[in-house]
Amino acid sequence: MTATVNPSKRKAHMDRIYQEWDKALSENDADALLKMYAKDAAIESPLIPHLLNKTEGVCRGHDEMRPFFQAVATRTRRFANTTGPDT
Description:
This protein has helices at about 5-25, 30-35, 45-50, 60-75; strands at about 40-45, 60. By secondary structure, the chain is mainly alpha-helical. The chain starts with 6 loop residues before the first helix and ends in a 12-residue tail after the last helix.
């Protein structure tokens, strides 16, 4: 049985996730980024081979994702997000 989610609640939830991810990235907070993913999650990015010297562009699980987010955080300048996801 699948629960139906109210579209406005779904959008609010997606906006909250976007804002939390954007805030963590803006603050170069690798730990906050990692906490947004399940322990067995995977992330795919063309940056992974470049930043981690890997042949595959996928990190699986927190142990592989942590160095990726740390590398991204050290290369991202801090900035204030003055716009929302709809601007």
